[in-house]
Amino acid sequence: MGGTILVVEDDVDLNEIYKEILELHEFDVETALNGEEGVKKFTEFNPSLVIMDGDMPILDGYQAFKQIKEIDVNANVVIITGFSEFEPKSQEAIKEGLIKVISKPLGVDELLELAKKYSEIKI
């Protein structure tokens, strides 16, 4: 079995697609529909990788990333955004330990590459 992954995405269809693709490749996947739920699931699930949308209701991906890093400074988090990966909040998050910011759409190959690279071992 692959590593453990938490997918945090407010688009229900995308959330389910990411989950199905990852599970087909034998990853253990948990999902959340907003940042607040994502932080809660992170504490319960302790995933080796978090793949999170940057723009969500209740608590956006960047705010959730900061809370996750407070819980576990070594957490592996990737943010997917419909905005530029070069926007200031993305660059600030990278300085704070975010692994990567990826502009949408996230393709299947890129999703699996991320999963394989960052979910096997929790750094």
Quick summary:
The chain is of the alpha/beta class and 123 residues long. The chain contains 5 helices and 5 strands. Strands 2-1-3-4-5 form a 5-stranded parallel sheet, with helices on both faces.
Overall description:
Helix content is about 45%, strand content about 20%. The chain is built from 5 helices and 5 strands. The model has no long low-confidence stretch (mean pLDDT about 90). By secondary structure, it is an alpha/beta fold. The protein has one domain: Response regulator (Rossmann fold, 3-Layer(aba) Sandwich). The chain starts with a strand and ends with a helix.
User: Largest sheet, if any?
Assistant: 5 strands, parallel
Strand content: 15-25%
Regions with little confidence, pLDDT below 50 for 5+ residues: none
What global shape is seen? globular
Which range best describes the helical content: under 10%, 10-25%, 25-40%, 40-55%, 55-70% or over 70%? 40-55%
Whole-number total of structural domains: 1
Going by helix content, strand content and strand pairing, the class is alpha/beta
CATH topology: Rossmann fold
Total helices: the number is: 5
Q: Alpha-carbon distance between the termini? A: 18 Å
- Count the E strands: 5
Q: What is the CATH architecture term?
A: 3-Layer(aba) Sandwich
Classified in CATH, the superfamily is Response regulator
